[in-house]
Specification:
seven-stranded mixed beta sheet; Aspartate Aminotransferase, domain 2; single chain; 2 domains; alpha/beta; binds pyridoxal-5'-phosphate; 13 helices
């Protein structure tokens, strides 16, 4: 075996950024001041939760009270469920979903009902798609208290179209609808729908995070746009002594460096094109359209074990999914160009054996 290209494990299995955040983040960290670590926030005295919620509200044209802050979007999801779901009530989630959706309802004695995605083509590329008519049927049958839509969805990578989303939201006005946009930014940076949707659907909450696009997963910062009916949630999530001042400052620095993130996303987009091309030329492989920082790839079932071992020996980790909905799919987090090219080189070498 030739010497692995990387001496340490390359984690292309967790949907974390391999490029990291804007370098300005590290500059700030080198110069942290006493007020950032030893003192509480003074923002509450001004009638706002934080500089960050104030900034986001101004950027999107909301009142500050409509912006919720959280320790990542995992945290807000948990708080929504814990605040609104009672024992025996249902959460409607995608069948092909992030594992945590499947777990959280049980924390409060609730349970899940699932809606399936379908497979099709988008712009000529294989894609998972939301099946809105099916979702409406299941919603009407099950009457869940909470509905979760992920766009882009993990691990399938697809987004729900604006038209389908509007059609669905019109039907489920009686439920609380959470749109998890953790992977916002990689496929589209459009924000024009946010304010009109929140105005139209007062039970809607759109959740975002600094973990993915802004590459600050370790800083644990999430934010949400909350509809006008969700007053109790706004109170429930407010922390009067403030949040994590360092993390908030990192988030603000990230928001200001639009050019850095556009550049990184551009490189990732080129690498997605490279992956589509490479995987479509390998027998039995199929890469699904991705609007995220990862790509779902179908591959022959009988090579999974061997390929996993082969890649691990070369310090490359990708995620071989082992769930009910995925028996042959693998989720690959987009790495740097060097990591991505090496991954394909390894897969080709494995297939030649
Ligand atoms: C769909 C989805 N939502 C939310 C999260 C949680 O992100 P965070 O808590 O870091 O914001 C993840 C993490 O991988 C995810 O895949």
């Amino acid at each position: 075996m030739s010497k692995p290209k990387f001496d340490t494990i390359q984690y292309l299995d967790r949907n974390e950024s391999q490029y990291g955040p804007t370098p300005k983040v590290y500059e700030y960290l080198k110069n942290v001041q006493i007020g950032d670590v030893a003192w509480y926030s003074r923002d509450f005295a001004r009638g706002v939760k934080s500089k960050l919620s104030e900034r986001i509200a101004a950027d999107y044209g909301f009142k500050e009270t409509q912006i919720i802050l959280s320790y990542g979007s995992e945290d807000i999801l948990k708080q929504i469920i814990h605040r609104y779901l009672s024992r025996g009530e249902k959460v409607l989630i995608p069948r092909e979903a992030w594992w945590y959706y499947k777990k959280v309802a049980y924390e409060v004695g609730g349970f899940n009902v699932e809606y399936p995605m379908i497979k099709g083509k988008l712009d000529g590329v294989d894609s998972f798609l939301y099946d809105v008519d099916k979702m409406i049927k299941i919603y009407e049958r099950e009457r869940p208290r909470i509905v979760i839509i992920a766009s882009p969805n993990n691990p399938t990578g697809n987004m729900i179209s604006r038209e389908d989303l509007g059609k669905f939201l019109d039907v489920c006005r009686g439920a609380i609808v959470m749109i998890d946009e953790a992977y916002w930014g990689f496929g589209s940076t459009d924000n024009s729908y946010i304010k009109p949707y929140l105005d139209e659907y007062p039970n809607l909450i759109i959740c975002r995070t600094f973990s993915k696009y802004f590459a600050l997963a370790g800083a644990r910062v999430g934010f949400s746009f909350a509809g006008n009916n969700l007053e109790e949630l706004k109170g429930f999530t407010t922390r009067y002594l403030g949040y994590n001042l360092i993390s908030e400052n990192l988030a603000m620095i990230a928001l200001d460096d639009v050019d850095y993130y556009q550049k990184v996303t551009g490189m990732m987009q080129e690498d997605k094109e490279y992956f589509y091309k490479e995987f479509s030329s390998l027998p039995g492989f199929k890469a699904y359209k991705s609007y995220a920082n990862f790509m779902l790839v179908d591959m022959p079932r009988d090579i999974r074990k061997g390929l996993d071992k082969f890649l691990k020996e070369r310090n490359m980790l990708i995620k071989f999914l082992e769930e009910e909905a995925f028996k042959t799919e693998t989720r690959i987090t987009l790495g740097t160009r060097e990591q991505n090219y090496y991954l394909i080189e390894c897969i080709r070498e494995f297939l030649k054996q």
